[in-house]
Design goal:
394 residues; mainly alpha; 2 domains; two-stranded antiparallel sheet; 14 helices; 2 strands; 63% helix; elongated; binds heme C
Length: 394
Amino acid sequence: MDQAYLLEWTNLLLRWLHLVAAMAWIGASFYFMGLDQSLRPAKDGNPLIRGEQWAVHGGGFYHKQKFVAGPERLPEKLHWSKWEAYWTWISGFALFVLMYWGQASTYLIDPDVADLAPWEAIAISAAMLVAGWVVYDLASRSPLGDNGAAMAIIGVVGLAVTAYAATRIFSGRGAYLQVGAMLGTIMAANVLMVIMPGQRKMVAAVANGTAIDPRWGGAGKQRSVHNNYTTLPVIFLMISPHYPMFWQHPKAWLLLVAMALAGALVRQFFNLRHQGVQVYDFWLAGGVVVVLVAAFIAPPRAAVPTGDAPAFAEIRQIVEQRCVECHQPRPTNTAFAAPPKGFLLHTPSRIQRQAQAWVGQVRSEAMPPNNTTGITPAERGRLLAWVAAGARAD
Ligand code: HEC
């Protein structure tokens, strides 16, 4: 079995695991944030109960009660949520290493941005993953950490600086994934380094009958709120490789910040809505406005047709030279065991029949990835002129 084929399987299995674990984790985040926001004062007057919620789901009624300072006695079985977070990070990090570090020249490096050797790009990427957490953690522990508005501003400014730096170091696509990986790492580290240790202390205190320090749960709550606002931005970044219009754009960093901000505003809308606050439409409208602004200020950088309709022979030659090393049944580019996305361009009829499918990739400059095969702007113009003239093969 050849190596590229094994890599393909590893990639698939990691991605599958990553998606499933992330759904479980983010689902839990949405669920518990919504639950917390919709707790109402308990009816039976037990002073230990901060609030309660009644729900109906899956053919039964549920009655949930929150004990901020712990119950009197530890229940026999206590459910923890942590493996969703850990597995999301483990699988995501492995996938990032496999693709963006393992194939750094294809996915992480763009010589037009910075002509880095793979090891240099990988070292910077790793250092940024660690630095992101350290800076964020210090900010959260500082006196500003308790101020939600201040943390929101720090978050947006920090994200802008990071996105700007990443797009000056890595390929556009690599920069987006790098920032996504940094946010994901912060989220998982919040669980591992703050939320779980605090909860372990709380559980031990209940077991020993000693008092619970409110700071233990408070820090956990702070980080879990931060994680909640980060979910939609991270998901956007994880699906962004499909949308070169963002990361190919000269203002890619600004679009990243705008979309992340829109995601956080939408979370704000849902969190207030679950609290029953009435001004919440404002936040949803804010999210929508930010997305619209991003869409209008950012028509993608696009190649334009040049000259009159070229002959098919010219087109074939360009495609063969610039695309076929990857898009053929057995790619000669050793990074690929199979044609990426199953997309084939090695025969005249495929070039012609699929013209509409590939011309968009040529126009947006998503293909060739990071222009590995060195297609020229003039060649892009010729391909577009041919399609504009009807993509004829005679
Ligand atoms: C170095 C290898 C390589 C070269 C050269 C290359 N591609 Fe691709 N192509 C890829 C990869 C990798 C993907 C999958 C991208 C992804 O993961 O989103 C892809 C995907 C595509 C897709 C499918 C996009 C989708 O999301 O369904 C099209 C269409 C395409 N390429 C067209 C082209 C054209 C046209 C050229 C030449 C101008 C070209 N490619 C050159 C590697 C290459």
